[in-house]
Design a protein that fits this description.
By secondary structure, the chain is an alpha+beta fold. It has a single domain, classed as Nucleoside Triphosphate Pyrophosphohydrolase (Alpha-Beta Complex), CATH 3.90.79.10. 20% of the residues lie in helices and 42% in strands. It contains three helices and eight strands, in the order βββββαβββαα. Strand 2 and strand 3 form a beta hairpin. The longest helix is centred in the middle third of the chain and has 13 residues.
Length: 149
């Protein structure tokens, strides 16, 4: 009997001048928009993972300051589920010369309205769900998270 295990992912919700940092990426479902996001790797904390993924996908360094929410997304067409931890924080600096991860077309700054207009091209419904939580000021302290090494 196989044991069900959701994939653990992290995402960054970063706003600057009324626009949100998104990535346009090639996926098996075609071109999609997502927040800077990716999988937790063995040995790293959730915070380390979101900092790494954001840098790899956008070239932006940032410091997480709050947890926006935790989302369990099930894909009815498969046995795959994702447990996503969405963070927000402070942008530190951008490294425009940094090569982005394979599959990333570009980092884009989009307004909330532009993201909603692209709803059919979002990587997951969690993108909009977490963005709405962010816009409603959902912020939880990072000390909720513990990494026991």
């Amino acid at each position: 009997m196989s044991r069900w295990k959701p994939n653990t992912t992290v995402a960054a919700i970063l706003e600057q001048n009324g626009r949100f940092l998104m990535v346009e990426e090639d996926t098996t479902d075609g071109r999609r928009f997502n927040q800077p996001a990716g999988h937790l790797e063995r040995g790293e904390s959730l915070i380390e993972a979101v900092v790494r993924e954001t840098l790899e996908e956008t070239g932006w360094h940032f410091t997480p300051t709050a947890l926006v929410g935790i989302y369990l997304a099930e894909r009815p067409e498969s046995d795959i589920s994702y447990l996503r931890f969405a963070f927000t924080g402070t942008l530190v600096r951008h490294d425009p010369s940094r090569a982005l991860d394979d599959g990333i077309i570009a980092a884009r700054w989009l307004t909330h309205e532009e993201i909603v207009a692209q709803q059919s091209r979002l990587r997951s419904p969690v993108v909009l769900e977490s963005l709405h939580d962010y816009l409603q000021s959902a912020r939880h302290p990072l000390n909720l998270l513990h990494h026991i090494r």
